[in-house]
Amino acid sequence: MAGSLKIALRYSLFALIATAANIGSQDAAERLYRLFCDPGQLHCFGGLGIHSVTASVWVGTAVGLVVKYVLDKKYIFRFKVKGLGHDSRTFALYTLMGLVTTGVFWGFEFGFDYLFQTRTLRYAGGVIGLALGYWMKYHMDKRFVFRQGASECS
User: Fold this and answer.
1) Residues whose CB is less than 8 angstroms from the CB of residue 147 and which lie 6 or more positions away in sequence, other chains included
2) Could you give the 3-state DSSP secondary structure of residue 124?
3) How distant is the alpha carbon of residue 54 from its chain centre?
4) Quick check: 106 and 128 in contact, CB under 8 A?
5) Digit-coded pLDDT (tens) for 80-128
6) Residue 115 CB-density burial (10 A; 0-12 exposed, 13-18 middle, 19+ buried)
């Protein structure tokens, strides 16, 4: 039981780190957008003006995905890869499993954005969605991505 508790605490800490990286990079992307564009400009950054929230969520998702993959692979599952090709395939499978949980995360974040129309509550929705998604993702990754013996693949 002590081993399971350690993993749960470590996983929770890494989920918080990845969540902070996600939300922080979203906020940074939005701030950069506002620094270089007027809110009314539709053609700023190739037309992203009207989609700045969507673009910032994509940025946060990408940053959070990479941070979480590195931490999970090394410290949660202690998964050893055999070269760049194996690591790339493992990351692709990790990303594929994340599509379902990303839907949960985005559903909460965009849902809160639609309902409350404030950045703070949109981020709150994102945090809730990420927490639920990470719980689901741990179980999927344990079963399908970082299986015992899977690191032996070449």
Assistant:
1) none
2) helix
3) 14
4) no
5) 999 999 999 999 999 999 998 999 999 999 999 999 999 899 999 999 9
6) exposed
